[in-house]
Model the fold of this input.
Amino acid sequence: MAEKTTTVKKNNPIKTFFKNNGAILIGYGLLIVVLIILKGETFYKWSNIENVIRQAVQNSLMAFGITFILVNGCVDLSVGANCATTGVILVLFLNMGVPLWGAIIITLIAGALMGLFNGFFVTEWNLLPYVVTLASQNIYRGLGYVISGGLPVRNLDEGFAFIGNGRILNNMVSVPIIIMLVCFVFCSVFMARTVTGRHMYAVGGNQEAAQYSGINPKKIKKIAYMFSGILSAVAGIVLASKLYSGQPSSGVGYEGDAIASNVLGGVSMKGGTGTHMGALIGALVLATLTNGFNLMQVDFYYQMIVKGFVIILAVEIDVLKKAAEEANISLRELLFPKKK
Amino acid sequence: MASEYILEMDHIEKTFPGVHALSDVHFDLVAGEAHGLVGENGAGKSTLMKVLNGIYKKDGGTIKIEGEEVQMHGIVDAMNKGIAFIHQEISLVPYMTIAENIFLGCEKKKATGVDQYAMKVEAQKILDSLDMPLDAGEYVYHLTIAQQQMVEVAKAVSKNVKILVMDEPTASLSLREQESLYEQVKMLKSRGVAIIYISHRLEELWILCERFTVLRDGCYVGTRDVATATNQDVVNMMVGREVDNYYSERLHAPAEDVVLEVKGITSDVVKNVSFDVRKGEILGMSGLVGAGRTETILAILGIDRRLGGEVYLEGEKVEFKNMSDAIKKGFMLVPEDRRGQGLVLGNTVGFNIILPSLKKIYKNLTINYKLQDEIIDTYAQRMRIRMSGTDQRAGNLSGGNQQKVVLAKWLSMSPKVLVMDEPTRGIDVGAKAEIYELMTELAKQGVAIIMISSDLPEILNMSSRVVVMYEGEVKKIFDTAEEELTQEKIMTYAAGVGGNE
Done:
């Protein structure tokens, strides 16, 4: 039989990047252009840009965790509470005289356990993720109040403060940004290059297919929840350090921004698609919006309203984009069909 | 004797709380054969297969593979022993490429992680060797159902299967796509793969299989060679009694009394579609899947964007704005996916029947319970729904009875035109005859029925007239009063060979 040669092309990562994130990048680009025109150097000088990224760190870290969850077709509402309580745990252990590295490891384990707790009830008891994490949100925050006695617990150790407030590279870059980038690279590589990461896409895309291919969806989902817990703990560590204290009342509503960042970045709430790059861009868009409004001295209350509308608009664009992609036509053809 | 059988299942027992699902079931399989597994819904076919792949633990009996007794411990175990499954519902991950789907669960790795490129190359090799015109890098959601089916076959082949279980693989395929699937089955057989073929389409036994085994109510009825059996034999074995007349009497289209007239309907999918439906007839709509039959209805309903054409209901021009507008005017749809679109499965039979009539019952903050019960009872009886009571969950009914609930629901709204999309798909032989009877009855009472169907015998035996569509256009309208219809005549037009009329 004559050998047929079908050429197999390697994926071009840059092309894929623009294909996945095209719509949001255009929107983000427009936003930046508008801000440069309106504010000029005030906006684009390095200290402001660095400020924007630093503002995005907290949210991005939690958004990275949420990406794992959403790709699996689940949701996690407990990340804000997790973040506050892990912060308290870190400071309590520091105050007990545990060295910084030890306290950090303990805190990360605590975060992982909180994630696994969610994962257990979602997979083994088959409860709805929304309900489980809504409940565990209360449990974790309550736990934070109990162990802290309801008040912020302080620690003024210099090493500890460096995590959230330090600057390196000639004072150009804040430490939290480096932490965020390290987490970003880890998450992205994990999702794209490990078998478990690929299985997450399979479980979220078609759980039954995954199961019949010999994948254990329960295990995969537990791992996703564990990652979400760990990343929330990282966010908790950074936040506590920034505030020189663990505050049980911090992090309220953070889960909303984290989910919004993912949605803005094209991570589907239905599962199966989305990347950490998307989540990062989403978080940066939100931070840039806030920064722009602040530079223009827009009232915070109005900012919230605008932010809400931006999210709705972004999601609609994403939905249309997906519909067009599935019908194999361009977005323009979908919106403006030719009448005959 | 070294076993001539690649698979032997003997005295298989399985009990669920309250149900003896399998009792003393026997099944055997020879390498390179296709073995039909038939039986009505609930006969125990899927249970037997789930015992085979280890999802269910058997309560008794033995499973031997190539003469050696084995214990099955789940899907992965079955896969390692060379057993693969192709399910009725496509089970691929839509947002992954063909290559990723083929290697799902056994990904290729390199030092830096999953090796996408190697998987793509390997997958392409498999696709090429099977003569499948697909690109391994394509995303699955871009593929047609038939192409997805091909990917499933390729996936099975990549795992070096010895035994492939195909559970109603042609249920959602068009005729031409079925042909391509048959080719693939034959190709697999020639490679020595043994195939267990589960199907409700009995004619497929003679196309594909060497032998068949019949199950009834969890019991083994018998295994026979296809060559010495007739269709009637199989049906009798399945039902356990003589079923002679399968189809109801055929109706003829009256010359006048046009209820619905469609003139030049055009949408993104269909072009210039014209036909009419008359009072008391069953108008068959035939064509390959994707020929635009359902899409024609969607365009009439205004659910798909209409780019041209007119619709007349009882001589009056109508423009349906949406489904509820159409229902108000007497145009109703029994959807193909009755579990997904026809019924609220978690709720009761009564709830489902009363759903469209709620406005009659809930008025001015009072609830007319009497009228509610009256409507539910009348139509449940008229449709002869077999149930424990109207408070039974719709999801627990058999497919045939679920279809009757959908019919009852619309009848309570006195439809003028009733569109039935694949009315008997996935319904038992016995229940099918009942659905046909009900359809004929309804038509006689003056309902104009449009029956979209991919089942050619159904089209041939039930329709008064047949509209054949191809690639969004009407190719031919047959009137069964004027000429004897054959499958070949319909296929000629459905495949686009015949000219426009």
Chain B touches chain A through 39 residues (CB under 8 Å). DSSP finds 18 helices and 24 strands in chain B.
